[in-house]
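Predict the 3D structure for this chain.
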Amino acid sequence: MKERSKMAEEKNQVEGIKLIYDFLKHIITLCTGSILLLSSFLHKLGSEIKWRMLAQASLVGLIISMVTCLLATTVIVLRAEEGNFKHTDGKEATAETVFFYTGAVCFFLAISSLAIFVCANLPARQPSTTVVGTSARS
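Done. Predicted structure below.
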């Protein structure tokens, strides 16, 4: 009976680690896409940018988030390679926790900055109101 509960606990630990790994992969993907979105948005705005500091903060936050999430996935892969899925109190567990939370917090702050930046700059590019088929002489 103890052996069965021990196997179930190990299986739950493995599933938990898989969920964390998938979460980190999604954050990395969203960071990459957000950086591309931000760069194309800055390219389209040109010199009409408002609140440039938010764009810079967003870019820095996205890069930090992406790097720390990559480091956390590396630690997870190294632990998996060793077959070490138990709760450890060593350097690996501390590094994984620090990287995980740093990446998640930086991602949240960067996406918030990006959303505010986009909302502040959307009205900057108003489409032309010229109606097709009218003349200027009227």
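The radius of gyration is 23 Å.
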